[in-house]
Structures are given as structure tokens and as C-alpha cells.
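Exercise 7b. C-alpha cells:
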């Protein structure tokens, strides 16, 4: 199972960048980088974006093998106590941590059944959403602007805008989503 720290270390080493150099380039403390690489912490979405910029890669590159990680997390019952907390036109959300609404960000899986839709209400101002497609393809309509996402593609958007996500395939679509700050 590929963890974010292992993936980060592999990318850093493939680019022949030392931990000290990455710390200088990213502005993230060397000790924090070491803890991320050794799996003692995962970092935040913001730190992942900063590291991607310093390494010259995209978030999709960093999260390339995350589907294996997500499948492993799904089977760890300690992390999956809040199941199907939201249903909406053949769609469901599965948070990946306990007490997700009490954290600074909320990571969850979004499942949309074939030809189903998921409508999201406007969130409070300054709410951000990151989506990474694990399986299938969806169309996301953010107040009239449409984006198509296929497996391995990602989207970062302002979640304070109302949006609808529609499954384009005849199989269940599966997205890894991160919402900050958390909200349902």
C-alpha cells in the first residue's frame, strides 16, 4: 500500500532533491517533511499543494496511487464509523475519519450511482473543495461552469458556490474529496 509519505519521498529522490533542499524550496520545516515521509503525519492539503509546487508536480501526480490507500482505509473500521451520513439522488458520502466535523478539514469518499447526481448546498464563505476521481467520470457544474473529471483527474474549487456532480457512466463513480473547513 502506497502512503503519501512514501510517494513524496520517491518523487523527491527521483528528482535528486535532498530533504534540506525541499525544506528550503517549500518553506516547510525539515522536521515536518521528515515526519510526513516516515508516516508519522500526513500533512495538510495546503502543505501537499506547496510541496507539489516545490517539486514541479501536480496534486494528481502526488496522489497517483491513493486509490490503493483509500481502499485500505475503507477496510479499517476504526476510521469508518460514520457511514452514509448524507444521501442525495443516488449518492452517498463516507467520511474517512472519526469526528470529521471537528477537524480542520474533512476527507471523504463520494459515491454516485450510475446516472445519479449529488447536489451540494452553498457552504460558508472561504470553504474549499478538492476532488480526485478514483473511478468513473463525472460532470461538475459550479454555478453554470461545467467541468468533466475522469479517473486520475482532480479539481480544486470554491465550495461556497452551489454545485452539482453528475455521474456520466453506467457504473458507480468514486471520488476522494477534501473539504476545508468541514461541513455537510
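Sequence design result:
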Amino acid at each position: 500500500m502506497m502512503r503519501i509519505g512514501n510517494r513524496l519521498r520517491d518523487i523527491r529522490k527521483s528528482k535528486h532533491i535532498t530533504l534540506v533542499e525541499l525544506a528550503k524550496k517549500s518553506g516547510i520545516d525539515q522536521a515536518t517533511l521528515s515526519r510526513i515521509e516516515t508516516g508519522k503525519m500526513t500533512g495538510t492539503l495546503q502543505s501537499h499543494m506547496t510541496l507539489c509546487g516545490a517539486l514541479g508536480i501536480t496534486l494528481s501526480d502526488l496522489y497517483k496511487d491513493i486509490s490503493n490507500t483509500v481502499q485500505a482505509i475503507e477496510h479499517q473500521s476504526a476510521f469508518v464509523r460514520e457511514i452514509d451520513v448524507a444521501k442525495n439522488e443516488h449518492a452517498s458520502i463516507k467520511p474517512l475519519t472519526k469526528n470529521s466535523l471537528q477537524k480542520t478539514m474533512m476527507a471523504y469518499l463520494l459515491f454516485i450511482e450510475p446516472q445519479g447526481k449529488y447536489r451540494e448546498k452553498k457552504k460558508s464563505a472561504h470553504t474549499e473543495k478538492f476532488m480526485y476521481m478514483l473511478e468513473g467520470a463525472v460532470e461538475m457544474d459550479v454555478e453554470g461552469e461545467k467541468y468533466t473529471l475522469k479517473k486520475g483527474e482532480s479539481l480544486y474549487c470554491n465550495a461556497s458556490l452551489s454545485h452539482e456532480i453528475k455521474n456520466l457512466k453506467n457504473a458507480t463513480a468514486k471520488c476522494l474529496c477534501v473539504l476545508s473547513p468541514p461541513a455537510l
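Instructor comment: The radius of gyration is 17 Å. The first helix runs from residue 4 to 14.
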